[in-house]
Every structure is written in C-alpha cells, then in structure tokens.
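Dear colleagues,

For the upcoming journal club I promised to circulate an example of a predicted protein-ligand complex. I picked one with heme C because it came up in last month's discussion. The inputs are reproduced below in full, followed by the predicted structure.
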Amino acid sequence: MKMVLLIISVLSIGFGLPASAAQHDEYPVASPPFSEGIFPCSNCHAGLSLNTKKRALKDEHASIKLHHAEKERWCLDCHHARNRDKLKLADGEIINFTESYRLCGQCHGNIYRDWRAGIHGKRVGSFKGGKRTYFLCVHCHNPHDPKFKPLKPEPPPNKPDPKHGR
Ligand code: HEC
Ligand code: HEC
Ligand code: HEC
Ligand code: HEC
C-alpha cells in the first residue's frame, strides 16, 4: 500500500504540471523589455474598437515603424487582435510575451535552435550554479525593426577635468 502511494505521488510530481507551465520553466527568461506603463495593453485596448486595417498609426504608437518583412504583414500577425496582452502564432496559438522567442522561432528556426542551445544570444547561470536565465530575442532585437544599424561614430571623449577629485 505504501509503495502504491509512493508511486502515485512520484507520478503526480512528474505529470501534475500543465504542459504550458513545463514549457515555461524550461526557458526561464528575464522580464520582457516593455516601455514603462505600456503593459497591460488591455488598459487601453479593452476599450478600443478593433481596426484591422493596415495603416499609418497616428493616435498612439506613431513612433513604431514596421521594418521587418513589412510588405507581407501587419501588426496583428504577431499581436493578438482581441487580447492585446498576448502574442499570436501563425497556427493561431496564443502565447505570453514571456514566450516571444516562440514567435520569432517560427521564421528564424536555425537561430532559435542556437538560442535554445545557448550558442546565440546570452544566458546567465548554468545547470550547476543557480537558475539559468535566457534573454529574450527582443532584449537584443527590436521586433519591429530588428536589423542592427551601423553604429554612429561617437564624439571624442571629453578631457578629464584636472580639478576633479582633488
Ligand atoms: C514580428 C512580430 C511583430 C510585429 C509584426 C509587430 N509587433 Fe509589436 N511587438 C512584438 C513583440 C514580440 C513585442 C514584445 C517586446 C517585449 O517583450 O518587450 C512587441 C511590443 C510591442 C509594443 C510595446 C512596445 C514598448 O514600448 O514596450 C507595442 C506598443 C507594439 N508592439 C505595437 C505594435 C504595432 C502598432 C505594430 C504594427 C505597426 C506591431 N507591434 C507589429 C512583435 C511584433
Ligand atoms: C495609452 C493607450 C494604449 C496602450 C497602453 C496601448 N495601446 Fe495599442 N493602440 C492604442 C490606440 C489609440 C491605437 C490606434 C491608433 C491609431 O489608429 O492611430 C492602438 C493601436 C495598436 C495596434 C495597431 C492595430 C490596431 O488594433 O489598431 C497594435 C498592434 C497595438 N496597438 C498594440 C499594442 C500593444 C501590444 C500594447 C501593449 C504592449 C499596446 N498597444 C498598448 C492605444 C494604446
Ligand atoms: C513571419 C516570419 C517572421 C517572424 C515571425 C519573425 N521574423 Fe525576423 N525576419 C523575417 C524576414 C523575412 C526577415 C528579412 C527581411 C527583413 O528584414 O525585413 C527578418 C529579419 C530579421 C532580422 C534581421 C536579420 C539581418 O539580416 O540582420 C532579425 C534580427 C530578426 N528578423 C529577428 C526577429 C525577431 C527577434 C523576431 C521575433 C520578435 C522575428 N524576427 C520574427 C521573418 C520573420
Ligand atoms: C544577447 C543578445 C541577443 C539575443 C538574446 C538574441 N540575439 Fe540575435 N543577434 C545578436 C547579435 C549581436 C547578432 C549579430 C548582429 C550582426 O552581426 O549584425 C544577432 C544576429 C541575429 C540575426 C541575423 C543573423 C544572420 O545570420 O544574419 C537574426 C535573424 C537573429 N539574431 C535573431 C534572433 C532570434 C530569433 C533570437 C531569439 C531566439 C535572438 N536573435 C536572440 C544578439 C542577440
């Protein structure tokens, strides 16, 4: 009897988690790099009527200029139309912003594989030392305009003030 109970409890430890939670734990990530105050998006979007037309935005997000295969797509290919606090995969699955790497992985499969293996991007910690944390793709790439720009040359550094620190 004791043995049976033991087996049952071991099984429930292994299989008690919902699949989504298990997936989430597999790639613990740093918080999404949102601008302050923008999330939850539903603060505004719950009260807005839905406009699915591709257009230049004027009333809000005017600074977002899509430059990422933009001829073929629109915001709502990535953002869920009716629940703006979520992202949407091509097959219709709804995911959290903490899983945005899955969105990117749909089209950038090789990089996604490298990222999971810790080759592309950066990961803090290891199996031995503490909890591993992955940086999301969007910590390094702007999802709306992801290509790295050539760096502008910086002005020469100022001469240190000779009086400083005396
Ligand atoms: C390729 C997929 C993709 C497309 C297309 C896309 N977005 Fe995003 N967007 C994202 C992801 C992923 C994030 C989350 C970034 C993060 O985790 O902070 C995001 C973040 C945002 C944010 C929050 C920005 C902030 O300052 O924190 C806004 C607002 C937004 N998107 C609006 C738009 C609008 C408007 C469009 C169309 C003009 C658009 N998005 C098109 C993927 C996309
Ligand atoms: C301060 C209010 C506000 C917040 C917060 C906000 N939005 Fe919006 N959003 C708007 C308005 C207003 C529009 C319509 C702008 C226009 O038509 O010119 C819009 C448009 C959009 C669009 C274009 C498609 C559409 O529905 O018109 C996307 C995509 C979008 N928002 C995503 C987001 C995401 C993602 C967040 C959170 C990360 C967010 N928004 C947060 C007010 C907001
Ligand atoms: C629907 C397919 C699709 C999705 C989803 C997608 N991308 Fe892309 N991405 C492309 C295509 C196509 C290009 C090349 C064309 C362009 O840059 O406009 C590209 C270009 C890029 C580049 C520039 C590559 C270079 O040559 O410098 C980066 C970086 C990138 N994507 C990152 C991301 C990230 C991060 C996400 C998730 C937020 C993402 N992509 C989601 C299709 C996609
Ligand atoms: C820690 C920062 C970081 C993270 C996280 C990261 N990248 Fe990158 N990525 C880079 C850098 C740096 C480059 C090289 C840019 C260059 O050389 O122009 C790059 C290049 C790319 C390119 C162009 C590669 C090529 O072969 O032309 C794509 C596409 C890309 N990343 C997508 C992604 C996706 C998708 C994710 C998440 C699964 C991701 N990145 C996560 C920093 C990062």
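Two points we might discuss: The first strand starts at residue 87 and ends at 88. The two ends are 79 Å apart (CA to CA).

See you all on Thursday,
B. R.
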